[in-house]
Every structure is written in structure tokens, then in C-alpha cells.
């Protein structure tokens, strides 16, 4: 065994040292008489004590990465948003454009994780690749943004699923009056129930595979059944050529970009597999494969589903203005010829898929929280960095993330009106919905996109600096094409992050302001206070 004193005295090699790759290219090495494998040797050389077990298979890793991103589920969650803001063409072509750029992002992430596999992912790479004077602060910013992206993903998914459940009740009992507090309670139950799958490693590894097959079968059913049963179809002209601009922007191009938020959301949190790098053998090979498969299968499932749903959207006014509050449910109802039971069944396929997605996303966010806490990235990090001795998972970090996910569901309740707008527009913006209602939703959804993108931009940018040209390459390396992919990653992530800080509606008023800039400001304020009061002294001091 490696003693604690040995761990504290060990100084990791610089990023351009051959020692980093040397420790991973051998299969056996010795640390004071104890034989360890290459994966463990690399982790020790990076300055960390191995705490998690490498029990994930490649299939289980892919399952986790896929159901966290779950592109087809992202399409259903905001189905009517793209239609009302940019039209069906925005949804269809937006998915293609976003998928192409996400391939560039995956190439960038894969090259980095292949070279430096670590559960910290982006913040760990920023720490290793940034100039010494910028290393710690860059890593700290990455860690905060990465964690916040996971937290908002869990909470927004739970709230969306809760209103889908209430919509099903309303469809079967039209007199049922949907209340904000009901959605909140269901969202809390959703988060708590899905969290139970994350308290033991053996449960996680089995549940992600079950979740994968459930999500794939649900996607197949939702793609085929409504289109096969529906009496009327919108046709290919409507699917591929219909445009809509309710944003108020005079530029059709800007309306298209705003409408693409649904497509970007559908490929959110694509870095999930990166943060499982310490729970699978040979992560330098297996993680890149899982990332590519997650994006590839994500597009293969999302694009046909989007085409099929839009083909069934003959009466958009009735779908968007449904009294159930769930346009997708109304689409099922009309397509299945007013069959209430069948419509509810189809909607529950979406809801249960959200359950698996949220459970896997909690695995994702807890690993970020745990890894970040190893380097004292959060207050009371000693508590959050512990791994349970029997379950072999970071239970404390998981509980912390569950609590904050619930808090994010509570925050909109500070204003009942704001909460109702938030819920209403996240899944049911009508064509006549006020721009104020729509932009409140887009501001929150954008956070799930922007914060992970910020965490990606920083290490990818540093990886292009001349000082890092001699960083050892991993098994996955595309050479000059990898460099091109990194440039496109920076350009795309930066462009998206900037554009989605613009107002979504014109002219701008206090009601239709894009509040993501205010959210970023609050996060920056917290980070500044924590950095100067605590993190500047304690964060990642083992390398100093």
C-alpha cells in the first residue's frame, strides 16, 4: 500500500515530462515493493491516492455517457421551443450543425483524456497545461463551471419531468389544476429516488446499462408509433423548410441561432464519460470510444425522432396551446387519435427516461464534486473528498450535489409568477406566449450549455500553447487534425457562449432580458469571494 506520507511527498512531473506517459505505457511497476497496474501508477504520479475501483466496463461507461447526454430526450424536453422561435428547419438543421461541432469537441476532449485521464477532467487539464502563474486560478474556474453545469442539468431535468407527470394527470382529469408547488414536490421526489441508484458502485454499473436499453427502446417507440398511427402528416416541405421568427430579431440568422438552443441543449454535458476515468481500466483508450459513441448514437436517435415528431405536428396551435401544459403530450394525443391511455403511456416513456438520465447525471456531478474537493476546490473539501469504504463511491459529495440540485429547484419559488413562467415555458411555450415568459426559460436552460463550455474552452486553449507541444500524447491522437478540432472547439464554444448571453427578444425590456449574464455574475462573485478568502491559500497546494 502507498502511505499517506508518501503521497504528500510525491511531486507530479511537469506536463511535458516523459515520466507521465512512461508510467502508463508499462503494465507493472513497483511503489516500495507493492505491485500496481499502469492506471494506478499514472494516478499516483499525478499526485493522487487511488480511491475508486475500476469496475466499469466499456459498455457501462458508454451507457453512462449516453444517458447523461441523451440527445433525443433533450429534443422532447424543449420540443416546441425550436418550432416557435426558429421553425422546424431550425430544429432539423440545427441538430446537424450542433452534432458536427460536437464531434470537434469530442476529438478535443478525447485527446486530452487520452493523454491525462483523471476524474477532474477539464479543471485537471487546465492545471497541467496553463502557465504556472495562471494554473491554479484557471483550474479553479473550470471546476466551478463544470460542477454548476451538472447541477443545473439535474434540477432542470427533474422539474421538466415533474410537469410532464402533472400534464398526464390533467389529460385524464381535465378539472385538475396544476400548481407550482406540486411540480416542486414531484421534482424533489424525482431527484431523491434517482439518487438511490448512486450509493453503491455495483448498483451504478448495472443501472446505467438498464437505463441505456430503456432509453433506446423508448426512443424507438416514440419515433415510430405516433407517425404510424397519425391520420395526417405535415409532410417533408414543412419538416425541412418551415421557418418561424417570434423572437423579434429583424435578422433571420439571429432567430435561427436563438432557435438552435434546443439542439445545443440536446448535446449538453457531453463530457460525462471524462469524469469516470478513474473507474474504468485503460481510460486513455476506453473513454474516447465512449465519448464518440455517445455523440454518434445521440444524433442517430435524436434526428429521426425530431423529423417524426415534426411530421406529426399538423396543428401547432393546438399542440403549443394545450391545457395540459405539455406540447409533446398533446402531440401524442392528436397523433394517437385522442387515445388518452396511449398518450399517457407514450409520455411516461419520456418521464421514465428522464429518471435514468437524472440518475446518471447525479453520478456525473458527484464525480466532479469529489475530484474538485480532492484539491480543496470547495469549502469543507475534506468532507466531500471522502470515499465510502464499503460502497466505494463518494457518498458525501453525492449527498451535497443532491441538496444543491434541490435548492436549484426551490429558487424559482422565490417568485410564484417567475416559477410559473419558468415551468410553463421550459416545456410549453405557446406561439402566443409572451417574450418575457420565453426568455426566462431560455436564460435558465442556457446555463446548462454555457458553464460546461467555459470549462472546455480553458484547457483546450492552453493545450494549443507552444509550451505544451511536447506534452506526451495518448493512444488517441489525430495529430494536425486534432489541432484543427481544438481550434473549432474554441471558436464554437466561445461563439455559442457569447450569443446566448445576448437578449433572446427584441426590443429588450426588463421582462424579456436574458438573465444568464446575471447568473454568470453571481457565480463570478461567489468564486471571487471564495478564492480570496479560502481557495487562494488552500486550492491545489500539493503541487506547490
TrEMBL record:
Pfam families (alphabetical)? AA_permease_2
Where would you find this protein in the cell?
Answer: Membrane
Looking at the UniProt entry, the stretches that span the membrane are: 58-79, 91-116, 137-166, 178-197, 209-229, 249-270, 291-320, 340-361, 399-419, 439-462, 483-507, 513-533
User: What keyword terms does UniProt attach to this protein?
Assistant: Membrane, Transmembrane, Transmembrane helix, Transport
UniProt membrane topology term: Multi-pass membrane protein
* GO CC terms, sorted: membrane
Please list the GO terms describing molecular function: transmembrane transporter activity
Q: Segment Disordered: which positions? A: 1-22
Q: What is this protein called?
A: Uncharacterized protein
Which source organism? Aspergillus nanangensis
Amino acid at each position: 500500500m502507498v502511505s499517506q506520507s508518501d503521497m504528500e511527498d510525491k511531486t507530479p512531473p511537469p506536463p511535458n515530462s516523459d515520466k507521465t506517459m512512461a508510467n502508463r505505457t508499462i503494465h507493472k511497476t513497483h511503489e516500495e515493493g507493492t505491485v500496481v497496474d499502469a492506471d494506478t501508477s499514472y494516478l499516483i504520479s499525478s499526485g493522487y491516492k487511488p480511491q475508486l475501483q475500476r469496475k466499469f466496463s466499456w459498455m457501462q461507461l458508454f451507457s453512462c455517457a449516453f444517458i447523461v447526454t441523451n440527445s433525443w430526450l433533450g429534443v422532447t424536453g424543449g420540443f416546441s421551443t425550436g418550432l416557435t422561435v426558429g421553425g422546424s428547419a431550425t430544429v432539423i438543421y440545427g441538430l446537424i450543425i450542433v452534432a458536427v461541432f460536437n464531434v470537434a469537441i469530442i476529438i478535443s476532449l478525447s485527446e486530452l483524456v487520452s493523454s491525462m485521464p483523471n476524474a477532474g477532467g477539464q479543471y485537471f487539464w487546465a492545471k497541467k497545461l496553463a502557465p504556472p502563474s495562471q494554473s491554479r486560478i484557471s483550474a479553479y474556474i473550470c471546476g466551478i463551471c463544470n460542477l454548476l453545469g451538472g447541477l443545473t442539468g439535474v434540477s432542470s431535468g427533474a422539474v421538466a419531468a415533474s410537469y410532464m407527470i402533472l400534464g398526464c394527470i390533467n389529460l385524464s382529469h381535465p378539472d385538475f389544476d396544476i400548481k407550482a408547488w406540486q411540480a416542486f414536490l414531484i421534482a424533489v421526489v424525482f431527484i431523491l429516488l434517482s439518487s438511490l441508484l448512486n450509493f453503491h458502485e455495483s448498483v451504478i454499473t448495472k443501472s446505467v446499462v438498464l437505463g441505456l436499453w430503456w432509453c433506446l427502446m423508448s426512443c424507438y417507440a416514440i419515433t415510430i408509433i405516433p407517425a404510424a398511427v397519425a391520420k395526417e402528416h405535415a409532410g417533408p416541405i414543412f419538416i425541412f423548410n418551415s421557418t418561424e421568427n417570434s423572437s423579434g430579431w429583424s435578422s433571420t440568422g439571429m432567430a435561427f441561432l436563438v432557435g438552435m438552443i434546443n439542439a445545443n441543449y440536446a448535446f449538453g454535458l457531453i463530457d460525462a464519460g471524462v469524469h469516470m476515468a478513474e473507474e474504468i481500466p485503460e481510460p486513455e483508450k476506453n473513454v474516447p470510444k465512449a465519448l464518440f459513441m455517445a455523440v454518434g448514437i445521440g444524433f442517430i436517435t435524436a434526428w429521426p425522432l425530431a423529423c417524426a415528431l415534426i411530421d406529426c405536428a399538423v396543428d401547432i396551435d393546438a399542440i403549443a396551446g394545450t391545457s395540459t401544459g405539455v406540447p409533446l403530450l398533446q402531440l401524442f394525443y392528436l397523433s394517437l387519435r385522442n387515445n388518452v391511455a396511449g398518450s399517457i403511456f407514450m409520455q411516461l416513456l419520456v418521464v421514465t427516461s428522464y429518471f435514468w438520465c437524472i440518475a446518471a447525471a447525479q453520478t456525473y456531478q458527484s464525480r466532479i464534486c469529489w475530484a474538485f474537493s480532492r484539491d480543496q476546490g470547495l469549502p469543507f473539501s475534506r468532507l466531500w473528498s471522502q470515499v465510502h469504504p464499503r460502497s466505494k463511491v463518494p457518498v458525501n459529495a453525492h449527498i451535497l450535489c443532491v441538496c444543491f440540485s434541490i435548492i436549484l429547484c426551490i429558487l424559482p419559488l422565490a417568485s410564484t409568477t417567475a416559477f410559473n413562467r419558468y415551468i410553463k415555458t421550459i416545456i410549453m411555450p405557446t406561439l402566443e406566449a409572451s417574450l418575457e415568459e420565453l426568455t426566462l426559460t431560455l436564460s435558465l436552460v442556457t446555463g446548462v450549455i454555457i458553464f460546461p463550455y467555459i470549462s472546455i474552452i480553458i484547457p483546450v486553449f492552453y493545450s494549443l500553447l507552444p509550451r505544451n507541444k511536447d506534452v506526451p500524447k495518448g493512444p488517441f491522437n489525430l495529430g494536425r487534425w486534432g489541432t484543427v478540432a481544438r481550434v473549432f472547439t474554441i471558436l464554437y464554444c466561445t461563439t455559442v457562449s457569447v450569443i446566448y448571453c445576448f437578449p433572446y427578444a427584441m426590443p429588450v425590456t426588463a421582462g424579456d432580458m436574458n438573465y444568464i449574464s446575471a447568473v454568470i455574475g453571481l457565480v463570478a462573485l461567489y468564486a471571487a469571494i471564495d478564492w480570496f478568502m479560502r481557495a487562494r491559500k488552500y486550492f491545489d497546494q500539493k503541487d506547490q
